[in-house]
From TrEMBL:
Enzyme Commission designation: 3.6.5.4
Binding site for GTP: 106-113, 189-193, 247-250
Protein's gene: ffh
Annotated GO CC locations: signal recognition particle
Protein name: Signal recognition particle protein
Range covered out of full length: 1 to 295 of 445
């Protein structure tokens, strides 16, 4: 791991005395450090460059307050700008209909099934909801089985239609069943592939069109670095999703994907996954992510 950026910025500014203002000359070295930190965190090169230019514009000419060191001030400018670019605030999912329908999308292995369970568990325990999980992966019996195991562990019912090869029909029937049985949230786990594939895209587009979900969420593995951005872009072009779920943040990634995805698709990151257990879920806090990316 590289040296903590906050310490580095304070160090490079310690050498400068007197001017009382942040100038182009004394900021150049610091911006290089910032860019390096972003690249280390797997932020896309162009995004890192644009970011440092923004910070430069903000910082230059600013008077350094008597009470703070210039290094500390730069750290604050960088931190705040990063948090701002990642949305500034937490964004919740919006559940207004009865039942509210949440459609999960993403590649196989991104953590969709696990996250579906975590979200159901959270809605049940924190918001006293009565969710129904739906297995819409018609290709992999193991995926259906996995969702059943997840459902059992959190005591949430799982709707399946084994042998049926029409995910639109399964989703519609599940919503009917939820209405009949008083489930106020329906979470639909869909099939994923290891890479983007036209048939998968058409299938999930068709599900979205048929059920008009309250929330379409895109799940992405934060460890996949720059690939995460391309995947997010393609899914967004096809689905115009409402929010991003960044999983596996318990790994050693710095989470630069959060900045890249947010910048490219301009959709809020709503939750993060921080482990394999059903309670390893948190709302996305831009300020905390900013700390993590900068180290
Ligand atoms: P899906 O194919 O998109 O449904 O992905 P899964 O939910 O099956 O997850 C793939 C693997 O990642 C499983 O082994 C999960 O236990 C694991 N996983 C999912 N979310 C997280 C997370 O936030 N942290 C960690 N460490 N592992 C996760």
């Amino acid at each position: 791991m590289f040296e903590n950026l906050t310490d580095r910025l304070e160090k490079s500014f310690k050498l400068l005395k007197g001017s009382g203002q942040i100038t182009e000359i004394n900021v150049a070295e610091t911006l290089k450090d910032v860019r390096r930190a972003l690249l280390d965190a797997d932020v896309n090169f162009k995004i890192a460059k644009d970011f440092t230019n923004r910070v430069k514009d903000k910082a230059i000419g600013q008077k350094v307050l008597e009470s703070v060191k210039p290094g500390q001030m730069m750290v604050k400018i960088v931190h705040d700008e990063l948090a701002e670019l990642m949305g500034g605030e937490t964004v919740d999912i919006s559940l207004t209909k009865s039942p509210s329908v949440i459609l999960m999308s993403g590649l196989q292995g991104s953590g969709k099934t696990t996250f579906s369970g975590k979200l159901a568990n959270r809605l049940k325990s924190k918001q006293k909801k009565n969710p129904l999980l739906v297995a819409c992966d018609i290709y992999r019996p193991a995926a259906i089985e996995q969702l059943k195991v997840v459902g059992e562990s959190i005591e949430v019912p799982v709707y399946t239609e084994e042998g049926v090869k029409d995910p639109v029909k399964i989703a519609k029937n599940a919503i009917k069943k939820a209405k009949a049985e008083g489930n106020d949230v329906v979470i639909i786990d869909t099939a994923g592939r290891l890479a983007i594939d036209e048939q998968m895209m058409q299938e999930i587009e068709a599900i979205k069109k048929a059920i008009d979900p309250d929330e379409t969420l895109f799940v992405v593995d934060s460890m996949t670095g720059q690939d995460a951005v391309n995947t997010a872009k393609e899914f967004n072009e096809r689905l115009d999703f409402d929010g991003v779920i960044l999983t596996k943040l318990d790994g050693d990634t710095r989470g630069g994907a959060a900045l890249s995805i947010r910048t490219v698709v301009k959709k809020p990151i709503k939750f993060v996954g921080t482990g394999e257990k059903m309670d390893a879920i948190d709302v996305f806090h831009p300020s905390r992510m900013s700390d993590r990316i900068l180290g």
